[in-house]
Structures are given as C-alpha cells and as structure tokens.
C-alpha cells in the first residue's frame, strides 16, 4: 500500500520569571483581589481579542507577503545566522547526543522577550539574536515577526504548521498594559491569569495548553512550577508535512545504523529510487527531499569520521555553498524511520552568544512589570521530531517518474547525520537536528 511519510515536530520554549527581590511576595492580601480581577479581565479580553486579531490579519498577512518590504527579507538572513550559530554552540556542548532545535521558535521567543527589556538587557538580546539595528529598526523587527507568524500559520497552505505564544501571569502581579498590548499585536500572544501558589493547578494549566497546541506531541512540558514565579512565557511550533513523493511501506526493511565505531543498532530503513537534488562533497553528501506546500528537508550525511568537522564549519555560507552545487539526479535513497526528542538548557548556549545579562540578577525587565525585580531563572527548549510512515494513501493523480535501467548510486543514511527544515516561501530555517541514534 502506498502511504504518506510524515514529519512531525513539536517545540516548546519556557521562560520562568522569578522574583529575586527578597520579601517582595509578602504583599498585603488586600491587593490580591484587585490584581486577580485585573488579570481575570485580561484573560477574557486577550483571549477574545487574540482570535479576532489573528483572523483579521490573515488577509493582511497575505497582502504583506506579496508586497514584502526589504527589512522583512532581512529577517531571513538574521534567522539563518542565529540558527547556525546556536546549533554550533549546542552541538559543542552535547557532542554525542541527538539534538532537535527550532532556531526560529527560539529567535521569535527572545525577540518577543525584548519588548519587556530595557538598558543593557535589551541591547544584549537584540545583539545576541544577531540583529543589526543599523540595517533594521526594532519596530521593523517586531512587524516582520508579526508578518512571518501570519504567513506560517496560514491555514490555506498544504503544510500543517502552527506557531504561537502565550503568557501565564501571576495573579499577584500587574503586568504593564503596554507590554500586553505589544505582545498581542506583534506576537499574537494570548494571556492567562495563573495562581502559581497552587503549583499543581498552575502546572496542569500550562501543560494542558501546550498539549493542545502541539497536537498531543508534548503532553508534559513542565514537571513543576515555581510558586514565586511572576510570568511564564510559552512559545510553541508544530509541523507536519507530506513528502511530494511518498515512500512505499513494503520497501521498508530493517538494517544496521552505526551510532559509532563500537555501537550498531537495528532500525527500519525506508527505501526509494527517484530523482532528488543531491550534492557530493569531500566532507559530506547532501540530499534535499521536498514536501507538498513549499518546504524542504535537507539531510546532510558527513563522511566517516567527519561529523565534528562538519558541525564546526556548519554555517550559512557553508550551507549555501552546498545548496548551490546540488543537482537533480537519480539515486537510491535509504533513510531510517526515527522518532527523537531533545531537551536543551538554553541558558548555557545563549550566555555564550552574548545574552549573559538576561540570566543575571542585574537583568532589567521593567517594561514587563514595575512592581518586581525579575530575571529569567529558566529557559528550557523541548522538541519532538518524527519521520515515519503514518498517514493516508496518496489521493488523486500520481506523477510517475521515468526510471532509467542503469543502476543509480545509493545514498544510505546509516550513520549519524544532520537534518534541516527550510521553508521556501518565508526563507526561514524552522528547525535543525542531529540524529546520532534513531
């Protein structure tokens, strides 16, 4: 039976803002009711406005896409630089593990966070995200993210891709209206009033939201919440795509995957002979597999013993060089079915990329709330990536390829490899992965 191959990802990004002003949480109970009332009001207002705003801007988003200004094109360049820089730092810190990242989602979350930052904290976020404000203004940065989120969430597209943000706000603190308004305007953020003193209820509230918006892929983002938290910022992205040319289930056979010199595991390998964009280089082989709807997955197979070298030189320039040398040719492709998940402590990598102040006691997030001194106490990135054969039969007409009788070269992804998902319509790298053990 001919079935579709799906790739599904779900990514969650969590920021916990914990009050580090000693004794601050012992505020009078008289204020609690007022704050609770304020945030309950925001709950309803932001939830209602969020949907109206989002629906109303889908049409606008398409208009912007066709008349996209030069600054918004630059966002793709900054996204590329940030994506490869972040991957290299994470890969260096985790040399022998599976890695799954959504650089675009992390970039979006911290650009969102910059709305609430001031002084050195603010400048470190902007510079650490690799933006150059002499080329693009901050207003343009936020407007471009708004347009990108509309484009990526376009329900008319064949790709199932959704991305969004949510704020879970302590009932004991008043978040500034300007921050809430900008978060809704630019980042489509919803706002929810949360009682962090009731830690179990708060955890369930956040986990339920995450599970719903990642289609059940991440059912338990948080094991616990901080009862003294002021705000949790949740950013998510979900992707599911259909290959233009699906693999056939009956051709999937078990084979050896060489994790390292000493470890070999048995995994199911999908097999398909067809035309793909391919590049053969001294250090790696590159294969591009298109999805329906304007996205491509790039699979990079480093030559034996070259993985760390390829990763050290992994950059936008290197990727562009590989990409421009790709040619459409007939190959026999063997690709493992896999499902991997990853959790990354972003504090390590981002601090090395220039965002040290963000995680320190001297952080200035006074554009979020004036009634507490806050810092980011936790920045956790969780992702799930699956490549398998779930789905329905391909419907309608099937385009058949004329296959020559000569034996094509075989490309077998039977050792650690890299994978990058690229959205051609937005020129955005939505995620990167290293598969060491499928």
Explain this structure.
This protein has 438 residues and is α+β, with helices and mostly antiparallel strands. It is 34% helix and 31% strand. The strands form two sheets. Strands 2, 6, 7, 8, 9, 10, 13, 14 and 15 form a nine-stranded mixed β-sheet that branches. The radius of gyration is 23 Å and the shape is globular. The two termini are 24 Å apart.
Describe the secondary-structure layout.
Blueprint: E1 6-19, H1 29-66, H2 70-93, E2 99-101, H3 103-114, H4 119-128, H5 138-152, E3 160-170, H6 177-187, E4 190-194, H7 199-213, E5 229-242, E6 253-258, E7 264-280, E8 284-290, E9 295-302, H8 307-312, H9 316-324, E10 327-336, E11 338-345, H10 346-352, E12 374-388, E13 410-412, E14 417-423, E15 428-435
Helix pairs in contact: 1-5, 2-10, 3-4
């Amino acid at each position: 039976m001919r079935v579709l191959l799906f790739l599904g990802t779900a990514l969650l990004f969590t920021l916990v803002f914990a009050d580090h002003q000693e004794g601050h949480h012992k505020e009078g109970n008289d204020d609690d009711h007022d704050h609770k009332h304020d945030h309950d009001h925001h709950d309803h207002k932001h939830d209602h406005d969020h949907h109206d705003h989002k629906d109303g801007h889908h049409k606008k988003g398409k208009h912007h896409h066709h008349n996209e200004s030069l600054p918004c094109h630059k966002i793709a360049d900054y996204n590329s630089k940030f994506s490869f820089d972040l991957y290299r730092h994470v890969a260096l810190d985790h040399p022998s593990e599976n890695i799954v990242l959504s650089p675009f989602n992390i970039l979006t979350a911290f650009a969102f966070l910059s709305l609430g930052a001031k002084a050195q904290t603010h400048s470190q976020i902007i510079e650490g995200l690799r933006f150059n404000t002499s080329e693009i203004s901050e207003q343009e940065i936020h407007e471009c993210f708004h347009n990108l989120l509309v484009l990526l969430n376009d329900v008319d597209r064949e790709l199932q891709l959704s991305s969004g943000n949510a704020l879970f706000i302590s009932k004991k603190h008043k978040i500034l209206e300007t921050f809430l308004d900008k978060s809704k305007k630019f980042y489509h953020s919803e706002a929810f009033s949360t009682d962090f003193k009731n830690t179990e209820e708060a955890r369930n509230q956040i986990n339920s939201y995450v599970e719903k918006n990642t289609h059940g892929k991440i059912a338990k983002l948080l094991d616990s919440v901080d009862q003294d938290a002021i705000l949790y910022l949740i950013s998510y992205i979900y992707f599911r795509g259909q290959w233009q040319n699906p693999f056939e289930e009956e051709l999937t056979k078990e084979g050896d995957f060489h994790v390292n010199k000493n470890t070999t595991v048995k995994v199911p390998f999908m097999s398909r002979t067809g035309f793909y964009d391919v590049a053969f280089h001294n250090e790696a082989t590159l294969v591009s597999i298109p999805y329906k709807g304007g996205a491509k997955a790039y699979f990079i197979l480093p030559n034996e013993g070259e993985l760390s070298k390829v990763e050290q030189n992994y950059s936008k320039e290197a990727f562009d060089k590989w990409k421009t040398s790709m040619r459409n040719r007939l190959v026999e492709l063997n690709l493992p079915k896999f499902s991997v998940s990853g959790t990354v402590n972003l504090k390590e990598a981002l601090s090395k990329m220039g965002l040290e102040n963000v995680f320190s006691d001297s952080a200035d997030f006074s554009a979020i709330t004036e009634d507490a001194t806050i810092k980011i106490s936790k920045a956790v990135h969780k992702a799930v990536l699956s490549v398998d054969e779930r789905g329905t039969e391909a419907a309608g007409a099937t385009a058949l390829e004329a296959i020559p009788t000569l034996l094509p070269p075989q490309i077998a992804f039977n050792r650690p490899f890299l994978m990058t998902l690229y959205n051609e319509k937005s020129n955005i790298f939505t995620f990167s992965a290293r598969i060491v053990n499928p």
